[in-house]
Amino acid sequence: MALYWIIAVSFAGGLTSLLLASIIFKNANAALTNSMVSLAVGTLLAASFLEIIPHAMEASQNNFHGISFAVLIGILILFILEKLLIWRHCHGSHCHKHSECEVESKEIKTNSNGGMVVIGDLFHNFVDGILIASAFLVDIKLGLITALSMMLHCLPQEMSIFSVLLHSGLSKFKAYMWNVASSFATLFGGLLSYYILSIMENLVPYVLAIAASSMIYVAISDLIPNLHEKTDTKDSIKQISLILLGVALIYFIHASIH
Description:
By secondary structure, this protein is mostly helical. The chain has one domain (2-257). 84% of the residues lie in helices and 2% in strands. It contains nine helices and two strands, in the order H-H-H-E-E-H-H-H-H-H-H. It has a two-stranded antiparallel sheet with strand order 1-2. Helix 1 runs antiparallel to helix 7 (172-197) and helix 5 runs parallel beside helix 7. The longest helix is centred in the first third of the chain and has 30 residues, at 30-59.
């Protein structure tokens, strides 16, 4: 049953995210993108702390220290990887920050090479598929909540990708086709993860812990700093409200299915 859910959610989630992003992109502006980022922060943090980490602890037979350690290691590994990317992309006194969810949006201003953006999106979607599959292997409801939070945080990314591809000279049709193709990476990552993790069931709780650490890191290290660029009181209140809305969304879903 979990396999069918992974296939359905990976396929439908990728296309739904793409469709919503394309619709939103038509009327996209800085305020809308900022709102989507704020909502994503709330859903990512809530899904991590209310759903994924508790389920990982339960699946590990209440190995609280082991799961907490895995979350810590995951955050540190992501920090080190991001440092390596920063070092690689530093030129002279100018250094641009690159990270898993931020590369595509930064490329809008700094790079017109659509191919590089597609490659980054392929890898990102592949990782998303792994995280979704690991959640479904523990619990169907956990998988659905994880898929929802991943879809919400990927909307700003998909909007950025559209912009980059169009800016690189592609037609709207080709830009759509590239995004559709990259969305299948989620399905591939989900299927690969299912067959590996279903054989090595003991790894599932720790994969979930790493999944939670990546979501926490993305929210705190990449998304929240972007929100701090807006210092106006009105913008700050709006950001806080949308973050709380994201938390409330996951909380009420959590409460309704348990």
